[in-house]
Amino acid sequence: MGVAYFDVDGTLVGTNLLHPTWWFLSNQQSPLASARRVGRAFLRGPSMAMAEVKDRRLFNEMLYAQYKGMSQDRLATLAEEVFEEVVIPRMYAGSVDLVRKCKDAGQDVVFVTGSLDITMAPLARHLGADRVIANRLEMKHGVATGKLKRPVVAGPTKARLMSDDAREHGHDLAEAFAYSDSYSDVPMLSIVGHPYCVHPDRKLARLARAYSWPILDLRA
Amino acid sequence: MAHPCVVTLDHTSRPRVLFSGDQLVEVDLPAGTRVVYPKPPMAGLRDPDAAIRYAVNHPLGAEPLYSKLRPGMSVTVAIDDLSMPLPQMRKPDVRQRMCEVLLDLFDDHGVTDIHWIIATAFHRPMTEAEVKRMVGDRVHGRFWPEKLYNHDAEKPGGLVLLGETASGMPVELNRRAAESDLLIYVNLTFVPMNGGHKSVGTGLAGYRTLKAHHNPNTIRATKSYMQPETSTLSKKMEEIGKFIDDKLDVFHIESTLNNRMFDSTLEFLGKNEDELTGTERAAMKALVKTLEWTPQPLRQAIFEKVPAPYEVTGVWAGECEEVHEQALKKVTQQLVVPIEGQADIAVFPVPYISPYNVGAYLNPLLLSVQIEGYLFNLHRGMPVVKKGGTVIALHPASDKFDRDQHAPYVEFFHELLPQTRDAMELHKKHEKRFSQNAGYIQMYRTGKGYHPVHPFYMWYWGENGRQHIGRVIIVGADNEYVPKVLGYETAKTMDEALRMARETAPEDPSITCMHMCPLVMAEVTPEPDSAEAK
Fold it and tell me: How many CA atoms lie within 13 A of A98 on its CB side?
């Protein structure tokens, strides 16, 4: 029994937040509309890069502002395509087995990700995750406003949301597992009894060595 | 009269030079101390390849291998992993020789459906470079990685349940091996607990089978791992092995090595310090000093990079028990030194190597395995130390782990052992939780890690020693914490350790020092006038 929290992008799947966004932006109603959205996103690239360095939450907000004006129906349809075309081909070889071993051990599997809930839903179904804690787009009259609903899932907020989730479902965080690839997820790794770094970035790898956090490779 | 390898020290004896991890230390032992040295290396076979070919063509208790081969059949060759010999042997490894003889036979008889599986059980997977070094370029080049790979006891669908033995032990085996028309086991028997029925039934098994005998009860009931006829562990493995041999067509090949661990330039390490020539004595002094000044990682690298010039002393093939009997005879002939009577105090130098830290530091848990598992069990007859006696072990006992190979060990040592050292409690309360740890399992399957229950097995491994030995005193520990967690005492010097040991020993205690490495094993018989002898 217990619970296992997984970051998704870079941990279970070799994607980042840009991959699905690129798919959404470049698959609009017409080539012109797609070009317009891609061009606009491209112009904001430098400021988003700076935000990524400074604050992951700010980066998420700037990224998802690109979704403004997309209809809920279109997003739902494209989300399935994103799963087939973007996510599945980039899924790491060991992801399915790792999640299955957690399920076999009787653990709840929860995805905690800065990605959008609509793109996570098909993956959660595919891997058998019990719950998804993800970012949600604000909708008005069936159209995305370009804002994220609160709380924005990133950095330290992930840890707080996991803590709420564990309390709600009667899990002890000291017995919980967490898996992530990124230094920005140190908070979510720090609050569980069993943190695992999955092909970590350099800063996280250094921290993992210092704290004896096990390092996994799901690419093999 | 004492065996020539048993030396009793007197007041004129020089200090002994003993391993303490990857250092050598000079130790003054009191007059009257009995020092047991390894036997000189036996002569190796002049043509090992011819011996292998002869063995498979003239097997014991079985038809020659060629008569079993036919085109279109499926063959699986299981190979012992790199946990033996220690350190690794010079190229070509004897397993390469055996694999290449087999490959020629397969090619000659049109056998093409061949898989080669490294029988790792719950050991860490061997890396590609290690496999290549062990089996050679020919086999590696043709079969890696699709048809030459490590056994994976956690692979979904990778195991098959053959059934249960008469006493109810489930036998779950590697599917490919179990479903092949012929299974060949290529074995390297380095110590008496290797080889025989242990090979297939452990090396290719899954958790359900392993836990039937890798548990505290079995280990407690085992007098010595190195004496199969008195080992409950061996008996259980034998039951499983016979069950497998009844179900599958298994052809065993066992090889043995001598104990030539060091090249001629370092051969003095296994000699009586009083009999060293002037040159050897100077070389010994220089080596001791050099190791003292060399940083630890470099010392480890040097020792690991220098392969041992072991020579093949025998190869037998055919039916498991007949083959193993011959291998055991040869290994015993090389390793066993007879001694009379047990000691009140035993001195165990603990070297830098063990079967479970190839390419890694000998961590604290493995230190306990060395002392209470391997060194204690390197006996036939009676243990070297009396029941309730004291073991003085030399090792720095550093709080140091290889995070990739031994990640579950870190949690076991730092989280569980401070709570309890009771093997049964650890087994009942915590083993299952570790066995289901998905992250550690992943490290075992695709990384460099030992299986998550391996640290438990390591703790159980010392269980019969722990039940027998009264006190363990570590000389040369660089910290107090590790020995305390393991339940050991510490002493700064050998003199202090001996003084402490004498406090709980009879007056004028008998002291025996096992002078490792190279490997030596004692056959302990009661003293002629003792109660045991009568």
Answer: 31
Please check the confidence at residue A31 and state whether its pLDDT lies above 90.
no
Q: Which of B91, B146, B88 is nearest to B115 (CA)?
A: B146
- Which chain B residues touch A if contact means CB-CB below 8 Å? 154, 156, 401, 403-404, 407, 410, 436-443, 445-447, 449
Shared domain for B342 and B442, answered yes or no, is yes
Question: Distance between CA B12 and CA B17 in Å, rounded?
Answer: 15
Specify whether B346 is located in the same domain as B387. yes
Look up residue B49 and give its two tokens.
């390849």
Residue B497's domain comprises: 6-40+336-525
Number of neighbouring beta carbons within 10 Å of residue B444 = 27
**CATH, residue B461:** 3.90.226.30
Q: Where a domain ends, among B194, B228, B257?
A: B257
Residues in A 14-73 with any Cβ partner in B closer than 8 A: none
Q: What pLDDT digit, counting tens, does each position of A68-124 carry?
A: 888 898 888 888 988 998 899 999 999 999 999 999 999 999 999 999 999 999 999
CA distance A156 to chain B (A): 23
Residue corresponding to tokens 């001629």 = B264
Does B23 map to a domain? yes
Nearest CB to A101; choose among B404, B441, B446: B441
Dihedral angle sign, alpha carbons of residues B372, B377, B378, B381: positive
ipTM of the complex: 0.83
Q: What is the pLDDT of residues B452-499, one digit of tens each?
A: 999 999 999 999 999 999 999 999 999 999 999 999 999 999 999 999
Residue B316 in domain: no
CA distance B389 to B376: 12
Alpha carbon of A70: minimum distance to chain B alpha carbons (Å) = 39
Report the C-alpha gap between A220 and B149 in whole angstroms: 13
d(C-alpha B342, C-alpha B340), whole Å: 7
Q: How far apart are CA B47 and CA B402, in angstroms?
A: 39
| Residues β-bridged to residue B511 | B345
For the ranges A35-39, B190-194, B296-300, B520-524, the lowest mean pLDDT is seen at A35-39
Residue B249 Cα, gap to closest chain A Cα (Å): 32
Helices and strands (DSSP H and E) totals, chain A: 11, 8
Long-range contacts of A75-80 (CB under 8 A, 24+ apart): A75/A24, A75/A118, A75/A137, A75/A144, A76/A118, A78/A23, A78/A24, A78/A27, A79/A116, A79/A118, A79/A119, A79/A121, A79/A122, A80/A122
Q: Which residues have C-beta within 8 Å of that of residue B508, sequence separation ≥ 6?
A: none
Instruction: Grade residue A129 by pLDDT with cuts at 50, 70 and 90.
Output: very high
pLDDT band at B519 (very low <50, low <70, confident <90, very high): very high
Three-class SS state of A178 = strand
| A5 at interface of B, judged by CB pairs closer than 8 A | no
Are A79 and A122 in contact by the 8 Å Cβ rule? The answer is yes
Indicate whether B389 belongs to any domain: yes
- Annotate A110-172 with DSSP letters as a single string: EEEEEEEHHHHHHHHHHHT-SEEEEE-EEEETTEEEEEEPSSP-SHHHHHHHHHHHHHHTT--
Q: For chain B, what is the mean pLDDT?
A: 95
> Where residue A29 sits, what CATH number does that domain have?
3.40.50.1000
